[in-house]
Amino acid sequence: MASAPQPGTLYIVATPIGNLGDMTYRAVETLQGVDWIAAEDTRHTGKLLQAYNIKTPQLSYHDHNRSRRGPELIAKLQDGAAIALVSDAGIPGISDPGYELVRSCWEAGLRVVPIPGVSAVTTALSAAGLSPERFVFEGFLPAKSKARKAAIATLKAEPRTLVFYESPHRIKDMLADLAETLEPERPITLARELTKLHEEFWRGTIGEAIAHYSERTPKGEFTVLVAGAELQIQTWTPDELQHELQQLINQGLSRSAASKELAQRTGQPKRDLYQLSLSLSNPSED
Questions:
Q1: Spatial separation of the C-alpha atoms in residues 111 and 71, rounded to whole Å
Q2: Would you tell me which CATH number, out of the four given (3.40.1010.10, 3.30.470.30, 2.40.37.10, 3.30.1360.40), belongs to the domain 9-118?
Q3: What pTM does this model have?
Q4: Helix, strand, coil percent content, the chain, rounded in steps of 5
Q5: Is 11 in contact with 84 (CB distance < 8 Å)?
Q6: Phi, psi (degrees; rounded to nearest 5) at 41
Q7: CB-CB contact of 92 with 85 (8 Å)
Q8: 121-226: CATH topology
Q9: For 124-149, how does the pLDDT look when each residue is reduced to its tens digit (9 = 90+)?
Q10: Angle between helices 171-181 and 145-153 in degrees, nearest 10
Q11: What single-letter DSSP state applies at residue 223?
């Protein structure tokens, strides 16, 4: 059972991303027990509160009023109020308003308590068929194509699974920029309407995704998962290794030090590299 909300505490409460049944008992008890709920959209959150018979009053907190509303919320917390922060879906602060308020709480010495729940990132990763062990979340890419391609370019060699959010009216443009900046053959999973009635996972390559959505109108919010780049393992010939060793020795390194450094760079056994170095000239020995 959840403990009663404490005075002067900000609670970061995760809410469903679609299916109302994903609300946790702890989240409901927290929203019932706090003094105020700071909501991204009070009308949207009002429907959730009504479904769970939660009567706690709301205050709006969103991108357009956070600079003004943030200090008001901090003042209420300092006066002893317990406040829950919610976004329209998922965990506040993850591509939603919230980060600045949390930072302000820490700076003011106020307690911040997370009430975890569903997240589109981990929900999509769990069923996408791409490696979930190591991933990087990039949120929404820039809306303009030039800036979007520049952002994608910085991730071209990233070996971890890439996770993005995207809206239905920009998904086709995003796919085109992914194909141009990465490569059309890169595996991709498009997850839409997660936890909702029309939830769908589509898997294929970026090029196949472009063809798929050229024949239909994208609907619903998308979580886009792209396979990371394959690690390129360089193979070294004995002549190349000897050349690198000679360069290091010419810079003043001993055979042992040169072998150690090259072993770290290439993954080759230091013992084998040292044996190669014995056939090279060392200026310090001349």
A1: 16
A2: 3.40.1010.10
A3: 0.78
A4: 40, 20, 40
A5: yes
A6: -140, 105
A7: yes
A8: 3.30.950
A9: 999 999 999 999 999 999 999 999 99
A10: 50
A11: E
